Amino acid sequence: MSHYEPPLIDAHRIIGGRSYDFSRRVAVMAIVNRTPDSFHDRGRTFALGKATEAVQAAAAAGADWIDIGGVPFAPGPPVSIEEELDRVLPVVQAAQGLTVVSVDTYRPEVAREVIKAGAGVINDTSGLRDVAMADAVAGTDAALVITHSLAAPRTLHPSPRYGDVVAEVGDFLRARVQVALDHGVRPEQLIIDPGPDLNKNTGHTLELSRRLPDIAGLGYPLLAAVSNKDFIGEVLDAPQRERLSGTLAAVVFWILRGARIVRVHDVRAAVEAVRMTEAMLGYRAPAYLQHNI
Fold first, then answer.
1. What CATH architecture applies to the domain 12-280?
2. Residue 34 is among the residues annotated as catalytic for this protein
């Protein structure tokens, strides 16, 4: 399988004060959740001390970005804006200077505060369901991730139906990108995420994976949020804690199909898989040359 080189709009980006050339680089985004009910962590980093330790460990393992979440996308008990800020702001502050800080939120009020605190990325899993999110990011230096989903966060959406999942996801992202642009967000701020498993079954996510160039071809850096998701578990018949190999395979496949940012739980393994993939694509030189020299 030949790899796909997406026709990127503004491949050279300054994000969180750091320079990225997405024509030659894949960024690894580590996940740190300050939630008691995240689908994979199950509260492992809910305590502030544990979250801070996870941030430091992710940076030491080579993460380019750290994505901090205070409210899961999946249904669960309500979390107020104030509580979400109480969860994420201390972690944003703890991550300053270590790496690029991203915050996973769909609330404009939270986005404004974390950008002030130094967040360089807003990861909006709702796909600008509240257009005020675009206003919160416009005029700042923060990047904005726009994600496809059918339902609002914290909402059940069983048995999703699509005529052509790839075409519909592409149309959604194209329309929401235009909303962001109309509200003053600059093209070089935008990142897209087709939302694997978000209101999609395993068949939908596998189809998205196979035809990912149709989405990456929109021209904005594409984020692969595939880590430990249920489509991997259903393909491999693997429980939640036994999906690392499947995750790494999915990460590499999505890079070859055009992804330029990968969002992962197991940072060191993903960093090594990504850096090896970059080297084999000719994007990165080896750390050293000794064998048969």
1. Alpha-Beta Barrel (3.20)
2. no
